[in-house]
Amino acid sequence: MIEVAHLSVSYPAGPKTNTVLHDVSLTVPQGTVCAVIGPSGCGKSTLLKVVAGLIHDYDGQVRINGASVNPRSMKIGFMPQNYGLLPWKSVADNIRLGCSIRHELTADTDREMEQLCERLGIHGLEHRYPRELSGGQQQRVSLARAFLLHPDILLMDEPFSALDAITREEMQDVFLNLWQASNITTMLVTHYVEEALYLGQQIVRMSSQPGAVSEIMDNSLSGSRERRGSPEFFAMGQQLRLKIKAGREQDE
Ligand code: ADP
Ligand code: MG
């Protein structure tokens, strides 16, 4: 479970400070996906970095399974916006990276990596380097790395944004397939309404200046291809889009 309570974050801006998150509270129950959606600059990445333990300077509380965030004792799977692959490492070494940093490489790791690669359709590419892969393939490598680690929580920062629409939808299914087998507690940041509706059992809508939570919705439309094609899904998408737009215009 991820608990964020009254989180405020400011960045230094010359002699002053710039408040980018103000009094953000949310809870991601164990074994669920929470989609965080909001306009560019509302502090989504900042929020994720705080939960990942990468930003320490903040007010409020952040707890993972009841304890303060500690990336050393906790396994936090963090997928940054640009996939986070190391260009000088092979696909296999990139996938094993999280486990090797934690000295958790065993004979089982390679067996599991092979299975993951097969499931993800990147089997046979293990000796290549990231630059020799398409965007979709790089994204699959990044997913394989996150899932091989068996993290306590998974944090994904606009994971599918750099992909074309068709590949993006494909990758959402690939993610969902893997996720449904593990139910890792996940926070997924996106600016795509359909992605939030398809993947998030809970949707947190944020507005900007400063970044704050505008609405938290339970979403019964997530996780199924059939529902994704339904008129209800379409209508919810339109509604959410209008709310995000209205929230943005109020800020301007
Ligand atoms: P989002 O991911 O929603 O686009 P970010 O969390 O990246 O938003 O950024 C929120 C605000 O904080 C933006 O105005 C951005 O310019 C600012 N910001 C982000 N990172 C830093 C930083 N390291 N130093 C100063 N300002 C930052
Ligand atoms: Mg961002």
Helix segment count? 8
What is the count of β-strands?
A: 10
Helix/strand order, N-terminal first: EEEHEEEHHHEHEHEEHH
Strand content: 25-35%
The chain-level structural class is: alpha/beta
In brief:
The protein is 38% helix and 26% strand. It is an alpha/beta fold and 252 residues long. It has a 6-stranded mixed beta sheet with strand order 6-7-8-3-9-10, sandwiched between helices. It has a 4-stranded antiparallel beta sheet with strand order 2-1-4-5, covered by helices on one side.
Can you offer a commentary on this structure?
With 252 residues, this protein is α/β, with parallel strands linked by helices. 38% of the residues lie in helices and 26% in strands. Helix 2 runs parallel beside helix 4 (135-148) and helix 3 (107-120) runs antiparallel to helix 4. It is globular, with a radius of gyration of 18 Å. The model has no long low-confidence stretch (mean pLDDT 92). The protein binds adenosine-5'-diphosphate and magnesium ion. Residues 44-45, 81, 157 line the site of magnesium ion.
Task: Give me the secondary-structure topology.
Layout lengths: L1 E12 L2 E13 L4 E5 L6 H8 L7 E6 L2 E2 L7 E4 L11 H11 L5 H14 L14 H14 L4 E5 L7 H18 L2 E6 L2 H7 L2 E6 L4 E7 L6 H4 L2 H21 L1
Parallel strand pairs: 3-8, 3-9, 6-7, 7-8
Antiparallel strand pairs: 1-2, 1-4, 4-5, 9-10
Bound molecules: adenosine-5'-diphosphate (ADP) and magnesium ion.
